[in-house]
Design a protein that fits this description.
Structural class: mainly beta
Number of strands: 12
Distance between the termini: 79 Å
Shape: globular
Helix content: 10-25%
Strand order of the largest sheet: 3-4-5-6-7-8-9-10-11-12
Oligomer: single chain
């Protein structure tokens, strides 16, 4: 049998490699695909060959850049952000007896890169309305919303701050604390239900006046988008 011609084989391999490289480098940058994440547009990394230093005859070959996580930074809040959620609240006392009145209110989450802003209002039976704006930022290196996010009041005199954590795909847990004493004043769960058409928030009001924290009331909210 005739032995393989190594010179011919090497020439063929080099020719094929250069052809593939030419096709890769010829891709236009403006057609680079974009991956969509809730409330954020995150450009996908270009193929790592495009990051090499190009010369006429050769391409230097450093290590390809590390891949960025494709997980959204706000996995649950991203589903409900940018929407005015409004609805009613049924108040229940610590004795589990529903109050003979309904409260009205609403909230809206807005996301800007790593920052989260929560705007909310509550209308009391006497017609007076209380509005609160709170804001916080994801810690550097946080992935998939796994770290606790702290929101502080926009107004310097705001009496409380909030900590929340997301449990994908549909739950947010939050605690509210007295800024002066650090006492827990409310704990709540927000659930995205009905395919994202409605939010259900159950809040438990807390008091430490008698020593140990105790539940002094409950709020059961059902909210829908005000545009629907």
């Amino acid at each position: 049998h005739q032995k393989p011609n190594l010179t011919v084989m090497l020439a063929f391999a080099v020719s094929a490699a250069l052809s593939l490289l030419a096709v890769t480098l010829a891709q236009p940058l403006h057609n680079t695909p974009v991956a969509f994440a809730p409330s954020l547009l995150v450009p996908r990394r270009l193929p790592w060959l495009a990051h090499r230093r190009r010369t006429l005859f050769a391409v230097e070959d450093p290590q390809p850049p590390a891949k960025e996580s494709s997980e959204p930074l706000f996995p649950v809040l991203g589903r409900i952000a940018g929407i005015d959620w409004e609805g009613i609240c049924r108040y229940v006392g610590s004795d589990l007896r529903p109050a003979p009145f309904l409260l009205r209110g609403g909230m809206r989450y807005d996301l800007d890169r790593k920052q989260c802003t929560l705007s909310s209002f509550l209308t009391f039976p006497n017609g007076k309305t209380r509005e609160v704006v709170m804001r916080g930022e994801r810690p550097s290196g946080d992935k998939e919303g796994s770290s606790t996010l702290r929101l502080d009041p926009e107004a310097a005199e705001g009496p409380i701050y909030m900590e929340l954590v997301e449990l994908p795909p549909d739950t947010v847990l939050m605690n509210e604390y007295n800024r002066s004493s650090g006492d827990l004043v409310l704990t709540a769960t927000v659930s995205v239900v009905d395919g994202g058409e409605e939010l259900v928030q159950v809040s438990h009001e807390m008091s430490s006046d008698s020593g140990d924290p105790a539940i002094v009331g409950h709020q059961v909210w059902r909210l829908k988008s005000s545009f629907r």
